[in-house]
């Protein structure tokens, strides 16, 4: 990735998408304390007030932050340290686990969002390696780096812990939609969930480029860890302004993705977000993308539609949707990305 002062046009956002006005940490996204889930009587009943907080945050923001989520701070520290060590390696070392034509997992430094290059490098890991090749006949095996030592152990443990949290959050979302707590779990018996490690190096022209261009997450839920640098901007639903998400130590940022938007028949919306850069500091983040099985056909849930509130989307297949989206993110093309709006009924 270039550090030259000359502007590389591949990274330059169209003027209307450059990060000019960001409301800094004011009127921030809701903060939800999950400790009631882990009290002595946990598992018995989820307090109504917690469900109401999740409902309001999902409806009004599509985003919230959680604290007291049950993931040990030592594990977060280990994950961040290991991530920093990996990205500090030489290009040559990192390219040993680079993604290739056959395997879309691994290290990558040239991703595009909406056909503009993102100022970042990543490594992608699936949570569960499928026992069979995928629909394209591709093998989805993780490429585990040999260095730093402990990389694999750390992220396997991280994945297991995050998966537990993701299921608890999914249950809260189900309850908040007046559904039985485990109503959505069936879609995740098999999963296409993946973990991405993001490194955003300092950028000499942070007013022109973005770490990740504006987008909505395609999956069900995202559980994001960010370091103390800050840079995630969320498009506030109430007024359309970009709001910077304040880094809170040992917290996660949760957002509902397109799939929950469709399941909820637009009660909840997947909200646009992006990553702004700065010229002085690196930023590290770790999104956990909670994705259902590839055979899942996504459509508004029957319990949430009726004559007065008919289904607003046609059914689509998750595996097909994701494959199409992913292909377009890895190269610059003139075609528009696939979006759930393509399945929206008019
Ligand atoms: O790094 C972040 O804070 C968010 C990244 C993101 O939105 C994504 O990878 O979908
Ligand atoms: Fe995202």
Automatic annotation (TrEMBL):
Key words, A-Z: Iron, Metal-binding, Oxidoreductase
Pfam family for this entry, one: DIOX_N
Keyword Iron in record: yes
SUPFAM superfamilies tied to this protein: Clavaminate synthase-like
Domain annotation Fe2OG dioxygenase: ranges: 191-292
Gene Ontology MF terms in the entry: metal ion binding; oxidoreductase activity
Family classification: Belongs to the iron/ascorbate-dependent oxidoreductase family.
Descriptive protein name: Flavonol synthase/flavanone 3-hydroxylase-like protein
Native source species: Carex littledalei
Species classification: Eukaryota, Viridiplantae, Streptophyta, Embryophyta, Tracheophyta
